[in-house]
Amino acid sequence: MSGFGIAHVPDNIVERQVASGELAQVLDDWSPLFDGYFLCYPSRRQNLPTFKIIVDALRHRE
Known about the structure:
The protein has 62 residues and is an all-alpha fold.
């Protein structure tokens, strides 16, 4: 990964690589905190099955 530049990615995706020193965080002062995804939809009733899959995926925690 060395030499490929700077990327803006969520912490949870690269936390293992940062902890091992494979990647380094830069521009910490410019990195906003990410509280999670926010979904706005009119009702919990009559949602498509595909919408439920997306909601479940966004709720998933390792």
